Amino acid sequence: MAIRPAAFSLLLLTADSDLQAQLKQDLKEFTLTVAKDVASVPKMAAKHPFDGVIVETKRGQPHELAELQRTIDPAHTFIVAGSRSVLRQAPGWLQALVNGNGHLSNIASRDLCLESYIECKLGDFVKGMKKGSARNLHPMLIQAVERPLISLVLKETNGNQIQAAHVLGMNRNTLRKKIVDLCISVKRERKPRAEIA
Q: How far apart are CA 38 and CA 16, in angstroms?
């Protein structure tokens, strides 16, 4: 999928003039439109479809991001959201999507699926490991991925190990062993009982 970086249109949502100036400078090879608030997005998106939206988020204002997600079609537009410090790193991420020949990199051309994302991240890690004296890379990476995966599934199932084992596709006893081996804490939140009137 060959595109010119200038054909890549981005919408920047921030009221911070310093951040606007920095991103305009860092993303000069992209078409960048600036808006100060989410309320202006529907009109702008109707006139001009954007490939991506970069939005500054603030604590206590999740409704703005939810409104943006209702306005933007996620099948055609990606959203990068974060604090000012996170957005200052956005140019590096966006330029990583587009290589020097003006072609989308492999990760972008395959629609940023989980496998592509992991492949991209592991590629840098493995290159760094080759320079050192790496050993036992496979078990180390499996453990690094397995611990957060099991923790997240347990959190999502509210600590129910039977449900978590089912979601993970493993035996309940295997899951219990992994919980012990990986030192994963299992917390169950109690749901408040309904008051009897």
A: 14
